[in-house]
Design goal:
By secondary structure, this protein is mainly alpha-helical. The chain is built from 3 helices and no strands. Helix 1 runs parallel beside helix 3 and helix 2 crosses helix 3. The longest helix has about 40 residues.
Length: about 130
Amino acid sequence: MTTPSDEEVWAQALDRLEQDVLRAERLVAEAEVGPEPSATDAATDAATDADPGDVWSALWAEPWSGPWAGPWPGGPMPSVLVQRALAVRARQESAEVGLRERLGDLLRRRSFTARVTRATTHVDPPAYLDVSA
């Protein structure tokens, strides 16, 4: 069995990071093309207990690569991979901005749905029956 070179170890790490950032980019892209919710959509979602996050669950059907654990090749990243690593980092930063925006959208939609539910749900006050009379 041969030991992989530092370049191979770093290339594999970059491959994994690229897969994760591609998944995040797809998530952002899918969220951007989705329709804006209307008051009717929010009321329907509230009535059916639908979670807006469920819309995105299909995008995560592929297995997640798990928590990041950096490579320990014993040496610095080879210079031939530095530009690729910088490109991955730029994509990660862009995806992070998009994910933060989408998360904000989801939180606003969830808040709106909760307000619609509170405004349209009638709860009867408790009724007590005096059985001792």
